[in-house]
Amino acid sequence: MRMRHKPHAVDTLLGHPDIVIFKPSLHKGLWAEEFGNSNPICVELGMGRGQFLSTNAMKHPNNNYLGIEKKNEVVLTALQRVLESEHPMKNLRMLPTSIDSISELFASHEIDILYINFCDPWPKDRHAKRRLTHRRFLNEYKGLLKPKAEIIFKTDNRELFDFSIGEFQHCGYEIIEITYDLHKLEDPENVMTEYEKKFSEMGIKINRLKAIKL
Length: 214
Fold this sequence. Notes:
This protein is an alpha/beta fold.
């Protein structure tokens, strides 16, 4: 469903600089200073309405969470979720920017965990390079990930998943988990996204891959 344009979204986001970072490139290499600690930096690409990001921030207060989402209206929805929560989330920041600029946001070896959740599958072959698990992106992530850092990728799209396995292998990641039916595992650490909840309720199987940067 298309997100309705909200003309005052930017003004609202600007009113919460403690959560929403409009010039994230200024923090490149300095995210530990932004959070005031040396806890692990965990990044979600395309955070959507923020359910995954905020739930993790609450569950794991000793991790720092950054969500990247280019649409201001979507970031606004995620912000409202945080503001309405009874739990303080000082370990969460939102970056309203494009994933294409990720190398401008993080220094080498700055990220501990990278989450890619239900990204656009771009099903046409001519659009393959736009997939967030295409080798051009995976090689870029490698420069930002710490040694032994982890990428966790989830999707309902089997074709994208199979394509992604090959791309991770091509780029030299060590794949430590592949599952084609995530919820059958009953993993207590799995945090569902909005899409994941919707798809699982429809009986659609969820694929998950975990890979480590060597």
